[in-house]
Amino acid sequence: MLEHTATRAPVEDELDVLRRWAAGPQPRALRAAIVLEAALGRHNAEIARRLGVSRQTVATWRQRYAAEGATGLDSRSQSGRPSVVDEGEVVAESLLAPPDQRSSRSLGRRLGCSHTAVAAARRHWNLGRDELSTPAPPLTPPLGEGGIWVVGLLHEPGHTLVLLAQRTGTRAEPAPADIQPPADALAAVTTAFTRALAAPAAPPAGPGTGQTAGHAAVGAFLAAARRVHPRAALHLVVLRGPAATDFTEQCARAKVTPHQPPEHTGTVSFLRAALALDAAQHPSSSARVLLDLAAALQGPAPLRWIREPLPAAPGERPSGAAGPLHAAGTASGAGANQIDLGSFNECVVIETVRLAGAITRGDIATRTRLTQQSVSRIARSLLERGLLVEDRKRPSADGKPRGLVRLRDDAAHAMGIHIDPEVLTAVVVDLSGRIVARRVERITPEPRPGAVVAQIAALGEAVLAGADRQVRESSFLGLGVAVPGPVDTVSGTVLDPPLMGVLRDVPLRTLLERRFSCPILIEKDSIAAAVGERWIGRDRRSRDFVYLYLGTGVGAGLILNGDIYRGLTANAGEFGQLCAVVLGRVEPSGRPEVLPECNPACHVLVPDPAAQRPQLTVRQAARAIGRGTLAVIDMLDVGLVVVGGPFCTGPAAEVYLTEIERAVNDFPTARRLRRVHVERSVSTHEAAAVGAASTLFHASFTPRLRRP
Q1: What average pLDDT score do residues 130-156 get?
Q2: DSSP 73-88
Q3: Per its UniProt record, what InterPro entries does this chain match (predicted)?
Q4: Which of 213, 300, 353, 518 has its CA at a distance of 20 to 30 angstroms from the CA of residue 422?
Q5: What is the DSSP string of 472-505?
């Protein structure tokens, strides 16, 4: 009976469909192959032998095709758990789940499917327990080696395209098992993308209609992405719309490889899974990139989103690097300790010596509670490596002189650049904070980010050239850059400084890495100034304090528990916002004002009666700043306020110090329990630049249980 199964010959159109299915993924490929073999007049037994299946399987699908045509070859819904699941959802949930809940059985219970289906989907995306494997979407054609970045999204009437990037010639490291993507930011993107897909399609804008206009938009999108990411291997994934082959010409012009997405992955779930993989493999800026994409998806249609330039790859030599201090072997995308301290105890000893200035080994042991043997061993190692130097002998009660050790000032150097809305300041400092080279320039009036970045790089190269004879390559730790906030320090991107719009969303570290082949740290200016104050102030700044930075705007840096407090996003210390809240100054929208009181550049000591506009005196501004400082003191309960910055000079400095001291001592809730000291900074004009350089020292030598 099986040899005489009812069938019908496929028509020409169905033959084309069946041939395409037979060349595609299983299980539909096998079913299409059975029908094609039957169309050639072969019996069930021969078909079963040729395809390696049972005769019953051949008979079943021939009967299904005879009754229902090509649609009968698709899988039918069954009772119980589905055997085929959305692989994108499996991947996303695998990455979002806590590490102890990522087993196939746990995910299967959460997704309502079998654990075997979950395991198969994870294997398909190379998301297994093999630590040597790099997860990647199973695209057609497949991707090459290396991790992925989501760098573009084009959503227009008729098509939705995602652009992925891979490092050219490099292999990405596998993501640590305990890295979890930011779930709230990923959820914001998923919700916004779902709404964008459900929104009614608007007619295509611009010249041309239909397919011509769509292909022109794709070509322009790919060309723009290639300009932003010139070194990456780009891959276009067609989530919705024509086949990937329809964009072959546009992809060829932009040197982009077109792909079709995996069969068992939805449009939303693919984007969610790809973003989750990106965030897990490259966690440095994932939250901000996801939130930026979510904001773009909520904007007007159509959507053309291109990610900012990616950070330089580890070990990649930036173009244009030159000079003896720019050795290619020191390139890195983040601050690193070239001197390579071997232990936490070494950092403790260095910190003790730094605070004391000069100290005996016995006193180091007493202060650190390390054994004499440990201190002697560590001191001997640091002396051999040139970080410490023997100082004069100190007489002792038993008549035996005690040797003093101190930090060797030229054992390490770093460059700091401060970017202010008015001027650029670049310095090279040694381990003691002494400036060995300095250059100051007015910032270019050119309103292009490229011109400003070029000036910054040229200034840094000039100050390095000026310090070249005093700085050894082996002692140079890198470059610290202090910028107006807010800033994304992990990716090195300046976000939207209120007084310097030219640097909005500029990937500063990425651009500087093309000129400087050394570790680069990006820090908010007020936080950098606080780090410099702690480092240079030594024992005078060994306790907790609040640093008020008076520049073009007022910011705050917090030293708490012996370390800088940066906050969740490294943007703690928005002092102007705090002053506005304390003074009840808000815009009609409810947002705190950008106060003129928090811009010392606009203050005058004595008002001019002939002035056309009311002038804000230094004393009036100082009282407003004092109110904001009072709120900080009541919040943190610290006993020291340090005031510094380029506008804390001359007669104005005394006015600021007097008014702030009065506010923080006369009005706090706990005024009967403490006296808050208000002191002038040990640095003045170059506080932020010196602080930017000090961030390298702080990252290298400050004792931490977890190194940055």
Answers
A1: 82
A2: GSPPP-SSS-SS--HH
A3: ATPase_NBD, Homeodomain-like_sf, HTH_MarR-typ, ROK, WH-like_DNA-bd_sf, WH_DNA-bd_sf
A4: 518
A5: -GGGEEEEEEEEPSPEETTTTEE---TT-GGGTT
> Six-digit token pair at 369?
């509670």
Angle at 50 between CA 44 and CA 55, to 5 degrees: 30
Question: 367-405: per-residue pLDDT in tens?
Answer: 888 888 888 888 888 888 888 888 776 665 555 667 889
Write out the residue limits of the CATH 3.30.420.40 domain(s) in the chain: 540-684
Which part of the chain has CATH 1.10.10.10? 344-410
Structure tokens at 158: 């008729």
Residues 6+ positions from 691 with CB-CB distance below 8 Å: 416, 480, 482, 523, 525, 527, 528, 529, 530, 531, 532, 533, 535, 683
Q: pLDDT tens-digit profile of 238-275?
A: 988 887 778 888 899 999 999 988 888 888 899 999 99
CB 496 within 8 A of CB 504: yes
Mean pLDDT of the chain: 81
**Residue at 73: amino acid letter:** L
CATH fold for domain 540-684: Nucleotidyltransferase; domain 5 (3.30.420)
> Where are the strands (E) in 387-473, listed by range?
388-394, 402-407, 413-419, 423-430, 435-442
**How many residues does the structure list for the chain?**
708
Tokens for 556, please give them. Answer: 């705050």
Whether 62 contacts 7, CB under 8 Å:
yes
What are the DSSP E strand ranges found in 645-705? Answer: 677-680
**Minimal CA–CA distance to 512: which of 376, 275, 318, 316?**
318
Please write down the HEC assignment for all residues of 225-280: HHHHCCCEEEEEEEEECCCHHHHHHHHHHHCEEEEECCCCCCHHHHHHHHHHHHHH
The DSSP output letter for 420 is -
CATH number assigned to the domain with residue range 344-410, chosen from the 4 options 3.40.50.720, 3.40.190.150, 2.40.50.100, 1.10.10.10: 1.10.10.10
Contact 549, 360 (CB under 8 A): no
pLDDT in tens, 274-284: 999 888 887 76
Closest C-alpha among 546, 534, 563 to residue 355: 534
What torsion, rounded to 10 degrees, do the Cα atoms 155, 161, 163, 164 define?
130
Highest mean pLDDT among 197-201, 431-435, 488-492: 431-435
Residue 256 and residue 228 in contact, taking contact as beta carbons nearer than 8 Å: no
